[in-house]
Amino acid sequence: MSNVRIQKKLAAKILGVGVSRIHVAPEHLEDVSQAITKDDVRSLIKTGLIDIRSPSTPTRGRKRLVRTQKAKGKRKAAGSRKGGMGVRRQPEREWVLRVRKQRQYLRKLRADGVIDAKTYRALYLKIKGGVFTSLASLKNYIGK
After folding, report:
1. Rounded to 5, what percent of the chain is helix, strand, coil?
2. To the nearest whole percent, how much of the chain has pLDDT over 70?
3. Is the CB of residue 80 less than 8 Å from the CB of residue 73?
4. How many domains is the chain partitioned into structurally?
5. Is 51 helix (H, G, I), strand (E, B) or coil?
6. Known Pfam families for this protein (predicted)?
């Protein structure tokens, strides 16, 4: 087996790539080892005895693993989070949902005749003012 290390270095320099990307045809190692000058190497490149391998790309195995884990709901702990609390949990959106739920419950009570219109209006304004932190606190207040 002939040593073609120098020819690979020359080819890498000519082609502007790394030595690891240079490929020499195994059946023509003797011919390639005879090349001494850059011109010799250039002619071998033209004939196709020396060519460039495509760069190796990173494997996607880890990416697939992470995707399956995220589908299961993993990787959501404190170390994986970026941004403040208001980024992942939007306070305004939570408030809107909470108020909607409380108002819906209040309308149900009024429709069932549990509370009259005056009490409904008073409680509605309390909900709007943020007196009740949750539906449970509203139920607790009405229960008293």
Report:
1. 65, 5, 30
2. 98
3. no
4. 2
5. strand
6. Ribosomal_L19e, Ribosomal_L19e_C
